[in-house]
Automatic annotation (TrEMBL):
InterPro entries documented for this protein: Cupredoxin (IPR008972), Phytocyanin-like (IPR039391), Phytocyanin_dom (IPR003245)
Protein name: Mavicyanin
PANTHER family in alphabetical order: BLUE COPPER PROTEIN (PTHR33021), OS07G0570600 PROTEIN (PTHR33021:SF339)
Signal peptide: 1-28
Length: 184
């Protein structure tokens, strides 16, 4: 049947694909706003403090989890953010599980448009740094299809590392698999 060389070529191509996919997996992080508290007025969550503990990068995703009967998410301008003005939002999200991928650097202002909620502190400023490549250590969570609920359990510093390791593990198995069969 096919030469060992041919099968090894296939193995190399597969290996490259595996490696490429592992890189892609660690491209963007997912952050659940408020962590386990979610997006709420209960408990006086300090969303400024929450945001201050994160280092956001372009292509990161923020998830707002809340009861859509009581809250919503509006992206607003800086002026509207400061004034808690929900009259002309840039965009409005109402599903109760809103994933928003940040595509640009700079400040992204969000508030709850339900009367009184923004004034009560249900507002968050997501500041995305200009130069994501400067990051001294990989930060942010894995964008894996895991439900957002499990996301805060992971350390932001561990996820990309784990992802990359997982990609390499797959690669190794792939190579072993192909070489095993090319040997027969
Ligand atoms: Cu609200």
């Amino acid at each position: 049947m096919g030469s060992i060389l041919g099968k090894r070529a296939v193995a190399v191509v597969l290996a490259c694909l595996m490696f490429a996919s592992s890189i892609q997996l660690s491209a963007g992080a997912v952050y659940k706003v408020g962590d386990s508290a979610g997006w709420t007025t209960i408990g006086n969550v300090d969303y400024n403090l929450w945001a201050a503990t994160k280092t956001f990068h372009v292509n990161d995703t923020i998830v707002f989890e809340y009861n859509p009967q009581f809250h919503n998410v509006m992206q607003v301008t800086h002026a509207e953010f400061r004034a808690c003005n929900a009259s002309s939002p840039i965009s409005t999200h109402t599903t109760g599980n809103d994933s928003i991928t940040i595509n640009t650097h700079g400040h992204h202002f969000f508030l709850c448009g339900v009367p009184g909620h923004c004034q009560a502190g249900q507002k968050v400023d997501i500041n995305v740094l200009r130069a994501p490549s400067v990051a001294p250590s990989p930060s942010g969570l894995t964008p894996s299809p895991v439900p957002p609920v499990t996301v805060p359990a992971l350390s932001p510093n561990d996820a990309p590392h784990v992802n990359l390791q997982f990609g390499w593990l797959l690669l190794v198995f792939q190579l072993l698999f192909v070489f095993y069969f090319s040997g027969n």
